[in-house]
Structure formats: C-alpha cells, structure tokens
Amino acid sequence: MDLFLDFLAAFGRQLQSPTLSFLLGGMAIAALGTRLEIPDAIYRFIVVVLMLRIGLGAGIAIREADLSDILLPALAASVLGVGIVLIGRLTLAPLSGPRPEDGIATAGVFGAVSASTLAAAMVLMEEDGLRFEAWAPALYPFMDIPALLTAIVLAQLARARSAPVAATAGTAPGFAPVPARGATRPRIGPIIADSLRGAALSALALGLVLGMIARPDPVFHSFYDPLFRGFLSILMVIMGMEAWARLAELRRVAHVYAVYGVTAPLVHGGLGFGLGWLAHLATGFSPGGVVLLAVMAASSSDISGPPTLRAAIPSANPAAYIGASTSIGTPVALLSIPLWIALADVVFAL
Amino acid sequence: MDLFLDFLAAFGRQLQSPTLSFLLGGMAIAALGTRLEIPDAIYRFIVVVLMLRIGLGAGIAIREADLSDILLPALAASVLGVGIVLIGRLTLAPLSGPRPEDGIATAGVFGAVSASTLAAAMVLMEEDGLRFEAWAPALYPFMDIPALLTAIVLAQLARARSAPVAATAGTAPGFAPVPARGATRPRIGPIIADSLRGAALSALALGLVLGMIARPDPVFHSFYDPLFRGFLSILMVIMGMEAWARLAELRRVAHVYAVYGVTAPLVHGGLGFGLGWLAHLATGFSPGGVVLLAVMAASSSDISGPPTLRAAIPSANPAAYIGASTSIGTPVALLSIPLWIALADVVFAL
Amino acid sequence: MDLFLDFLAAFGRQLQSPTLSFLLGGMAIAALGTRLEIPDAIYRFIVVVLMLRIGLGAGIAIREADLSDILLPALAASVLGVGIVLIGRLTLAPLSGPRPEDGIATAGVFGAVSASTLAAAMVLMEEDGLRFEAWAPALYPFMDIPALLTAIVLAQLARARSAPVAATAGTAPGFAPVPARGATRPRIGPIIADSLRGAALSALALGLVLGMIARPDPVFHSFYDPLFRGFLSILMVIMGMEAWARLAELRRVAHVYAVYGVTAPLVHGGLGFGLGWLAHLATGFSPGGVVLLAVMAASSSDISGPPTLRAAIPSANPAAYIGASTSIGTPVALLSIPLWIALADVVFAL
Amino acid sequence: MTTPAVKLTVIVERLLKPAVERLLTEAGVSGWSVFPGGGMGAHGLHRAEAAQLVREFAIVKIEAVVHDRAAAERIAETLTTDHLADQSGIVWLSPVEVWRAGKF
Amino acid sequence: MTTPAVKLTVIVERLLKPAVERLLTEAGVSGWSVFPGGGMGAHGLHRAEAAQLVREFAIVKIEAVVHDRAAAERIAETLTTDHLADQSGIVWLSPVEVWRAGKF
Amino acid sequence: MTTPAVKLTVIVERLLKPAVERLLTEAGVSGWSVFPGGGMGAHGLHRAEAAQLVREFAIVKIEAVVHDRAAAERIAETLTTDHLADQSGIVWLSPVEVWRAGKF
Ligand SMILES: Nc1ncnc2c1ncn2[C@@H]1O[C@H](COP(=O)(O)O)[C@@H](O)[C@H]1O
Ligand SMILES: Nc1ncnc2c1ncn2[C@@H]1O[C@H](COP(=O)(O)O)[C@@H](O)[C@H]1O
Ligand SMILES: Nc1ncnc2c1ncn2[C@@H]1O[C@H](COP(=O)(O)O)[C@@H](O)[C@H]1O
Ligand code: NA
Ligand code: NA
Ligand code: NA
C-alpha cells in the first residue's frame, strides 16, 4: 500500500514535467484554432539534430562500454519488437475489420519506436536524475526494424492466405523493392536497407558511427547537447498540434483503433519494463535503461515507420495506423513516461 | 540644462547599441542591392522562439508577482492602445485622403505593438542594466488588442456614416467572420479570438501559460534565453531589409503617411512614458517598466496586426498602413528606444 | 627524416578531426542512398550565420589591429587569387577540350575561396590550439574577387581571339551587366559589385563592418561563436552529401577536370603556404595566418563563385567547374587542412 | 480513356485561402492542390521564399480540377465579385483531360 | 514558330515520386519539373509548408511536357492502374505549345 | 463572362529570373507569379527542397497570363534566342480563360 502511494506520488510529480507541458500546450492551441505553424524545414532540422545527438551520445558511450553488456538488452529490444507485433496480429487484426493488413500495419507501427518519445524520456530522466547507460538509446533500431519486418512478413502471409491465386498486380510503389505477389517470399535485406535509409535512422546511425570513431565530444557538448532540450520542447509543440489535427482522420476508421491506441502503449511498456527488469537481474542493466526500454516499447513510430509500411504494405489504410499512432499512441506513450519512471523509483527503491 | 546634457549623452551612448546596428546594417545591404535572403522558414521560427521566450519569461515572473501590481500598468496599456487610435482618427484620418479607412487602419497598426521592437527593448535594457518587472512584456496584448478593436469599430462607424445604405456586399474574406454591412454592430468576440490565434500572439500566450503553470525554467535558461539575443540580431537584419524594400511601396500613398510614420512613434512613446510615470508614482511601477510601456506605445505592429485589419477592414489600402509601419514606424520606434532609456536615466535619476 | 616523421605524425593526428569526419560521414550516407535531406532554408541560414560569425570576429579584431600588418597578407592573397587562375589558364585550359572557357572558369573557381573550407580550418586550428590573427579570415575577399575577375577577363580575351568577329549575341543573362561581345573590354566595377552582393560575401561584409564599428561582442560571444562549430558540422554533412551527388555530373566532362580537382588544391595550398611564410619572415604574420592563407588558396569556391562566373562567362559549362570544385576540389581542400597544420607544426617548430 | 474537364486556378494572398477553400467545399469540389509562391501584380511584389513579415500576405496558387465547367464558373464568379473586388488575386480556367474520372 | 505538345501533370505523395520518375525515365521523357505543395482530396488534408511528421506523405506536383501524346497517355495509364490504384494521387493532361521543340 | 488569354510558362534557373522579369516588365505584362521547384533535364537534376549549394542554380517556374498572344510569343522568342541559347530552361504557352479581363 505504501509502495502504491509512493508510486502515485512519484507519478504525480513526474506528470508536471515541462517537456510534457509543451505537448499539452501544442494540443491546446491547435484545439483553439491557432494559425501558428512551425515550418516544415525547422521540423526536419530538429529531427536531424535530435537524432544526431542521440547517436553521438550513444556512440561516445559505446567506445567505453563492455559490448557484452549490450547484448542482452539488444536481444530484449528485438524480442519486444517482434512480440508486440505478434500480439497485435492476434488481438487487433482480427477485430479491425475485413482487411487484416490494417491491423497488422498498425501493430507494426506500435512495435516500432518513436524518436520524439525516446528523446522526451531522455530529458525527463535527466530532470529526475535517473541515470541510464549512455548507449541505451542505441537500442532503438534493435526494436524498430524487427517490428517493421515482422509486420511486413505477417501482411504478406495474410495476403497469401486470403488470396492464394493473388493475381493482382499491386506493385510496390516508391523505393522499397518488395514484390507484391502473395506467393513470393518477402525479401528481408532490401526492407532493412530501406528502413535504415530513412532520415531519422540515417541520422542516428551517422551519429552513432561518428561518436564511436571520430571523438566529436567538443561539438557534442557545445552544440548538440545544449540544443537537445530546447529543440525537444519545440518538437513537443509540433507533436501536440499534429495529434490534434489527426484526430479527425481517426474518426473515419474503426473504433477499435482508438481503444488499441490507448491500451497498447501501457501493455507494451509494461512488457518492456518486465523484460528490462529481467536484464537488470541478469546483467545489471541500469534502472534508467529499464525505463528507456519500457518507453521504446510503449512508443509508436511517428516519423520513420509509416513510409516503410506504406511502401511495403500498400493495401493497408494509412489513416488507421497513422491516426492511431500520432493522435493517440504517441501522446499516451509520452504521458506514460512518468509512469515508468515512478515504477522504477518504487521497484528499484531509488 | 545639465539634465538635458545628461540626456543627450545617455541617448548618444544608447544609439551605439549593437542590436540597432544590425537594423541599420540590414537597411544598408538592402540599399546596396544584396542578394542575401533570410529564408521565410527561419524568420517564422525566430518569431516563434522570441515570442515563446517573452511569454515564458513573463509567465515565470507572474507566478511570483502580486497580481494587483499588474492591474494599473495593464489598464495604462489598454488606455494607450485605445487612445492612440483615437488620436489617429482625429489627426491622420481626415488628412489622409477621401477614404478615412486608410487612416484609421494605419492608426490601428500604430496603436498595436511590434513584437520585434519589444524584444529589442528588452535586450537594450539588459545591456544597460535597466531592470523591469519580468511580467511587463506580458502587457503586450493589453495594448495590442484594444488598439486593433478600436480601429475596426471606428472603420465600421466611418463606413456606416459615409454609406448609410451600405448595399455593397464587401464580405469579410478569410477567417475573421466580421459582417461587412455598415449598419451592423461589429462583433468584438470573434475579432479578439482571431487576433489571439495569430502566430505571434499564440506563441506568446502559450509561453505565458506554460511559464505560469509548468515550471519550464530549465529549458528557458538553457535554450530560449541564450538564443534570444542572437535570434533578435537576425530579426533586426530582416526588419532592416524589409524596411528598405517597402519604401518603394510607401511612395505610392499620400505624403501624410510618411509624416505620421516619423512623428507618431515619438508622440505615442511620450504618452506611454507619461502614463507609465503616473503608474510609477501610484504603485511603484519600475523605471524599466515605464520604458517598456513607452516602447510598446511607440511601436507599430508589423507581424500580427496587419492581417487582422486586412480581414476586418477590407476596404483599407494595405500599402498605406504596412508601408507607414514597416518602412518608417518600426525603424523610428526601434531607434527611439535609446531615447526612452535616456529619458528614464534622467527622470528617475538612475 | 625526423622532421618528416614528425610531419606524418602530426598529419595523422589532424586527420582524425571530428569536423572532417562529418564530411566523410555525409559522403558515406549519400553513397548508401540515404533519404536524409537537410532543408535548403537551414543550409542558407547556416551559411549566413557562419559568414556573419567570421565577419564579426574579424571586424572586432581589426579594431585593435595595426592596419599595416594586414597590408602584406592582403597583397599575398590577391597575388594568389590572380596567380592561381593564370596557372590554370596555362595548364588546365589547353588540355580541357575545344573550348578554353571551361578550363578558365574552373581555374576561376579554384582561385576563389570556399567559405565552408575556411570555417572548417578555423575550427580545426582552434582544436589544435594554433592561433592566427583574428582578422586573417577577412583576407577572403582579397583572394576571391581578384580570382573571379581574372577568370572573367581571360575568358573574354580567349573569346575575342577565337572569334574576332564575335557575331554571336550571347547576351549576359541575369544580374551581371557584362557585355558579351568579344571586342568590348570587360567592365570591372559591376563584376566586383555583383560579387559582393552575393549572399555569402554580403553577410561577411555586414559582419565585418558591424564588428568594426558596433561593438557586437556580447551577441558574438553568446550566439555566433557557440553556434559556429555546431553549424559547421551540419554544413560538413551537407558538403559531403553534395560532393557525392555531383560525382555523377563530373563523369560527363573531360577526365582532366578530375585530375585538376585532386592536384590543384595541393599545389595552390603549397603556394599559399610559401607566400604566407614570406609574409611571416617579412612582417611576422603568424603561423596560423600562414595556414589560413594556404587553406584559402587550396580551397575552391562552392557557394558564391559559380553564379558570378555563370553570369559573366555564359558559354562555360557549369558541369565542369561545379563538378570539379564540389565533388573533388572541396573535399580534397578540406582534407588537406591537416596537411598545412602539420606543415606549420614542423616549419615553425610549434 | 480520358475525360475532358476544366482546371480552375486561383492565385491569392494566403489571407484569402480559407475563403477560397470554403467556396470549393461548398460547391462540392472533391479536391484541390495548393502551391506556395510569389508574384508581381497591381499590388506590388510578393517574394516567394524570402522572409515575409506578414505571412498572410504571401501568395498561394490553388488548383482544382473539376468535371463540371458550370460549377467552376460559379466559383470563379463568386470569388471575383465577392472576395477579389478590392483584394489581390487572379482567377483563370484551362482545359484538361483526366484519368480516373470518378475522382472528380 | 511553336510546336504543339502535351503537358502531363501528376499530383502524388512524395512516396510515389521515385516511381513516377522511373516511369518517365523509362518512357524516354527528356525532362520534368517538380513542385512541392499541399492539397485536399479523398485522403484528407496535406498541409503545404507546415511541419508534416511524415515527409513521404507530403504532396508534390510533377509536370512533364512531352511531344508524343501517345507516350504521355501510356505513362498516365500505367500510373493510374499500377500505382494509384489504392493510393493518393491524380493525373491530367493539358495542351501546350512549345518553343525549341528539339528539347522535348 | 470569361475572356480567352494565354499563359506563358517559363522554367529557368533562378539566375535567369531577373532577366525574365525584365523582359516581362519591358513587354508591359501586368503581373506574373513565381513558384520555386526542382527538376530534371538535359543539364541534370535540380533538387526541389534539399540544400543546394548554389542557390542561383535552383529551378523556378514563372507564369504570366497575358491577353495578347503576340506579346507572349515575342517574349518567348527573345528568351529562347537570347537567354536560353546555352542555358537551362524551357518555355511553353497554354490557352486559358480569365475573369476580370481588365487586370491582364
Ligand atoms: N498576369 C498575371 N499572370 C500571373 N499571375 C499574376 C498575374 N497578375 C497577377 N498575378 C499574381 O497575382 C498576385 C496578385 O496580383 P495583384 O492583385 O495584381 O497584385 C500577384 O502577386 C501574382 O502572383
Ligand atoms: N480535383 C482535384 N484538383 C486538384 N488537385 C487534386 C484534386 N483531387 C486531389 N488533388 C490532389 O491530389 C492529392 C491526393 O488526392 P486524394 O487521393 O484524393 O486524397 C490531394 O491532396 C490534392 O493535392
Ligand atoms: N520536358 C520537360 N517538362 C517539364 N519541365 C522540364 C522539361 N525539360 C526540362 N524541364 C525543366 O527545365 C529545367 C532545365 O532543363 P534543362 O535545360 O533541360 O536541364 C529542368 O530542371 C526541369 O525543371
Ligand atoms: Na514500440
Ligand atoms: Na503602439
Ligand atoms: Na582558392
């Protein structure tokens, strides 16, 4: 009981985080009909700087890290990515209407990771003094890519089953050279490559490699790190405005997506916390690292996942997965960060 | 006599402010035909960051402020906003040609407040060590909105008088649902709402609320405040270039607008200083606050006022009010900031 | 022998500079097909901030400098600008195919100066603790403009000779009012003016003048200087991506441009180092200044030179000079910076 | 394979964009596209990408492909009479041929 | 002096831009232009200049002036059948007259 | 209600924009619009929104609706002969119908 009260107190304290207030503020001014628009060029620059910052920080840390420490958490991340999508396949997809692809793609987006949620968690933990292995943010792609791959494979299987003669020539549009015929095995390599070529993951990977081999510590400390928190506050305003704007879209798809958008982050975050806790017991993965893993699991991809899915599962309706993720999943995941921090406070008796 | 010499010396010292030099530099390179262009996306981002900074700073300060201290200055600001437009109605409008709307709209723009001028005054006073109540910049909307409203009401009255049968269907374009028929009473609510929805005031209000309730002090001190002065220097270059570019436009409207553009900021600033001085005597409003009030009164709206007026007074010629404000009013108001600081030095024997 | 080993060691150390690693990283992700794009608005803002920073820094320094110290290095810079183009006229132009203009324009671009390379050299020297006269970056236009002028004059002479009756009406397009008929003498004034009106040089000149007369030290130290290194790292990523993208273009022009692109920076840098060393002996020009002069000589204009040449030598093929400069000349010049620093370490026994 | 249709093009200041979009929606037009730009006209110069102090005065082009020429004419009529009377802006119509006629 | 030609206009999400460009290249089209924008259609609103979380879903207009009407029709046919079947996007053709016919 | 007119479209590098605008002004054209973009052509790829080292080589589209077809042709003639001889750029004409004919 005491533990629960402690938890509630910690949660309440966390919820007042200024970072989250920018998110709510963005929603509020959008709801009030503001004409404020953050230019797209600024948004894209912010994403690049945040991802470079996360990559550089992790890369610098990996230089000194014991690689064997990373193995187990990376495995946990991949298991979460695959597992979340499988859960979605079994729960959301059957409920989501005649076309299972919509549900599968949505599960893929929720299995993947949101860069902005990850960044927000890093700042909130810093505000709270909760430390994590500096390489922990680099677990991102270990969860993101397996989740997207799993969704794509499941979608192909679903289509192969539903239309065994698959005569439609729904050729893959755009850059991802995925064969559309149901019978063909999906080619994994090109999808991974395509995924890594997206703007966010490219920047993360660039930062990671430079951090590991180029000693960019001066520019990291004089530029990337100081801008991190400020750019994140602007990004939160954008995410809030966007969440509000997409709500209308969500209304056009089945009700179940909204339910999934609210519950999935909490369930997935709980799973992430649990697996992270096992890694803590096994190899001493830090409490902060456990929280980050929970946040990645809870988050749903808003920037880089959707285009990969759109290219590879052209028959899935983007209004479903983008609406569920941007309008509900991401705000819920962001607001759940304090939950995982408070849980860590209690579980690890910080 | 001594006082006057002191004043001149203080004024001369202030005029060398680096902030103002960026303004003059922008004018100079525009006059020399530079191909330098600051991208619009950057300009809009700068405005958002400056307004968030002003709002956050004021909001943080209001948390600790005694609300009763704010009442009198806020009242003074509103009186100035309304009064300046009434003065313009009686002086400029009759002189400005056949259509009184042009003069009334111009008076509205000069009654409203320029965000960039306000920001410049804050930096100049900081350079000078002249302190003001941190909530003083939040007086902005208390002057801005009453001024715009007064202008819109006066324009409707003028039209009602000049065309009592007002059969023209000059419907309100765009977002402001203002009925155009002369006989109808202008609806105040929608105009205020529309005005607050503009990008600059939205960002100011967002910052204000977050500053009051969300404790954003860390991001304020690590991001918004350090960028303030630098972004302002870029904004000054933009304002200078724009002032030069708009001069051509001004040449196409009546001569009296140029005269008004030069004299109005000085007269209005003097009135603002006077009212502020009364507030100083009454409730101890700080000398810096008095200067800020003078600057707001002297300034003319360059970002947010014009679109509100354009929507609500479609018959007024924008070349008149934008030319007078951007080309002359704003530079004169910016260059008059040192005047009010020097005046404060002398009047308050700083 | 020992000296040579020292040099190699110093060179190797320098090559690991984080600044250069961002360049190589940009090339690498472009080669891997990234979809990352830095928005044009951000790129243009970065260039403005970097040039303002360089100008302000130099301007502030010139206030205290002994003007006579500047004379000799400025003369050396101009001699290098003219000389490099003359060398190109005699070596590259005859080899580069039927139209000498292509070779002459390319030599002009290599005689001119790259702002990004200059900025990178400043950061690398700061990292290395190698000091230079703070006004030294202001030598930029003293090399840049003479080089462009020389190229334009040589192109006109070449055309006059090859087509003495010059009946073609290849009128000068765009802004540079250069008469196209071979027989006419080129007008120097308008070309200089046009060159100074470009975005990069305008910003440099604005910074220089403000630094000299407006005491912008606070904003310099709080904004321009801290952003310098970070913005440069982003610019390096852009230059790297661009270098890779332009390689395809280069393949469409004669082979000799690639050879020139590799060798010219080294030869020109060597000449710059030599002339700088003479200035060191004559008037005590600092070792860091010598390195900067070498870097300017080695660099080739990527932002501001090409449009001036395109307007003034319309018959030259831009694919040749832009390909040679952006794809090869600039990367080689950037990677040669450590060479000049290492050389200075050895020559000046630092 | 193709069906004839008309394209209605409207160039106005951003301030008027909501009014134009309202007109299009009310007329039942199924879609339109918007392109930011700049221009020169009776009301002077509007720059395309450079900082513009007042964003609402920037130029946008709105293009709507519609099946029914009469509907396009009615929209243009209302626009020019009611909204562009003393405001910046021009309107024109041009012939096009479309695929997937059902979309328009 | 002028030669008749046709202009093929394609409005799609940026995601499909590479596919459209591949089609144009394969058809031997000598050039095209690309304009970023926004729009409203059956798939909802795409904003033109404001931050869009997913850049690949932004709207672009691709214009190609081609000499050979049949080629333009073939490209449009393939596009609408293969790529736009369940994706955003519209395609139209319009008559133009060009100078320097050799360029097309 | 509508009046026939022609639309002159010019796609050039930004470097040539002043020259085109000078030609239009000299020809007495009352207005034009400018749209930034990108493109592919004989001179290779010009990206639309990504950083371009040399801004003067970015692509812009200039559209002028004019009443007098002969004037449009003269402008296009001068452009293609004098300015686009060895430079990037294309020019075309298309038929339009305008409202408020007095504006053109
Ligand atoms: N003849 C024209 N052709 C193309 N665009 C035009 C024309 N006239 C005006 N425009 C566009 O419409 C805007 C407003 O025109 P105006 O109301 O004449 O200032 C201009 O800024 C141009 O973008
Ligand atoms: N009738 C139309 N006229 C012009 N553009 C359209 C039209 N319909 C759709 N569009 C454009 O095509 C995009 C995708 O259309 P849709 O697939 O209907 O959502 C829209 O966002 C618009 O930019
Ligand atoms: N056939 C075409 N259709 C549309 N735009 C074109 C065409 N050819 C060239 N362009 C545009 O004109 C620019 C210059 O063309 P070019 O001189 O052929 O490189 C290209 O970058 C395109 O934007
Ligand atoms: Na997830
Ligand atoms: Na005022
Ligand atoms: Na050089």
In short:
The complex is a heterohexamer, with three copies of chain A (350 residues) and three copies of chain D (104 residues). Chain A has 350 residues and is mostly helical. Chain A contains 14 helices and no strands.
- Radius of gyration of chain A over all CA atoms, rounded: 20 Å
Biggest β-sheet of chain D, characterized? 5 strands, antiparallel
Q: Which CATH first-tier class of chain A would you pick?
A: Mainly Alpha
Q: Unreliable runs of chain D, pLDDT <50, ≥5 residues?
A: none
CATH architecture of chain D: 2-Layer Sandwich
Mean pLDDT of chain D: 91
CATH fold-level assignment of chain A:
Na+/H+ antiporter like fold
Q: Shape of chain D, please?
A: globular
Q: Please indicate the count of domains of chain A.
A: 1
Largest interface, Cβ cutoff 8 Å: A-C, 32 and 29 residues
Helix content of chain D: 10-25%
Mean pLDDT figure of chain A: 88
Question: What count of structural domains of chain D?
Answer: 1
Assign an overall shape of chain A. globular
Task: Describe this protein's structure.
By secondary structure, chain A is mainly α. In chain A, helix 2 (18-31) packs parallel to helix 10, helix 3 (40-64) crosses helix 10 and helix 10 (217-250) crosses helix 14 (318-347). Chain A has helices at 2-15, 18-31, 40-64, 67-95, 100-111, 115-128, 140-162, 188-197, 199-213, 217-250, 256-283, 287-298, 305-312, 318-347. Chain A has a single domain (38-347), classed as Na+/H+ antiporter like fold (Up-down Bundle). Chain A is globular. Chain A is built from 14 helices and no strands. In chain D, 58% of the residues are buried. Chain D has helices at 17-26, 69-83, and strands at 3-13, 32-41, 44-46, 59-66, 90-98. Chain D has 104 residues and is α+β, with helices and mostly antiparallel strands. In chain D, helix 1 (17-26) packs antiparallel against helix 2 (69-83). Chain D has a single domain (3-103), classed as Alpha-Beta Plaits (2-Layer Sandwich). Chains in contact: A-B, A-C, A-E, B-C, B-D, C-F, D-E, D-F, E-F. Chain A binds chain C through residues 39-42, 44-45, 48-49, 175, 193, 196-199, 202-203, 205-206, 209-210, 213-219, 222-224, 226-227, and chain C through 16, 18-19, 21-22, 25-26, 28-29, 32-42, 127, 226-227, 229-231, 233-234, 237. Strand 2 of chain E pairs antiparallel with strand 2 (32-41) of chain F, so a sheet runs across the interface.
